[in-house]
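lol ok so funny story. i was supposed to be doing the assay writeup but got distracted and ended up predicting the structure for this chain instead. priorities right. anyway since i did it might as well share w the group, maybe its usefull for someone
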Amino acid sequence: MANQKDMEFTYSQIDKLFRLSIGETADFSGAKYDGDYTLTLEQAQRRKHDFIVEQLRIVPGTRVLDMGCGWGPMLSRIREAGAQGVGVTLSKRQAEACQRNGLDARLLDCRSVTRDTLGGFDSVLSVGGLEHFCSVEEWQAGRQEEIYAAHFKSVHALLPPRGRFFLQTMVFGRNMIPYEAIDVDAPRDSDAFVLALMTKQFPGSWLPHGDEQLIRTAAPYFKVMSKSSGRLDYIETIRQWRRRFARRRLRKLPIYLSLLPRYLTSRHFRLAFTSGISPNTLCFERELLEHYRIVFEAT
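and the output, tada:
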């Protein structure tokens, strides 16, 4: 699993830029356009949040765990619904941003959450968090299925009978290439190079191999209530993010200047954040990656 250092590299590094560009409690995961690309980014994210609230049956008085809460968009929506939301994240900056906005976010590893540590919950959600649960080394050691099965088991233990778990995650798609072919020195437009950039952006992380792997490892604990692909929606979401990050604002200048030493001294940093291309977009367009929203119910 990606550790706190990995999460700080990916998320804490862009904290101020993200909040200035996208919003103080904005969502840094795929929105839900459902093919209607006339929606604004905020409207599409709201559509996703409303869908999660409906599917998880979040109502006043219920208690909800957000695993990998980011900057708190779902915690805000849960609060709006009159429910109690508790979020966990491994990014110190994300936890601090949530807390500044009156949200209950804890700097915790998802694997440490049990009934003894945080109590029970009526429902649980994970939007993007599972993408960081398995490392390349763990996958190479043959532990990926074990890790996912253990995760589903631990989530199940937090829920009452028929409690629901919403999972949104990227997975490897039908055109995924062999791991051995991924190479940061490959031709710039190649699949091998684009996937190498992804590994630089998200160190310590290796994705599930399709939705089938997730459903199979969840089967002893959950049944699937609904499943949908968000691949095309994610392409549009990234397009909107890139447009907003590119907007020039004077308040961004000190942030860029503070990152200059890292840009000059770290090839890893340059590849992860300043390559000039969007590896996520290309991976989705080429179906190297897929994206799913799955609603599970405890059996």
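The chain is about 45% helix and 15% strand. Residues 231-246 form the longest helix (16 residues).
back to the writeup now i swear
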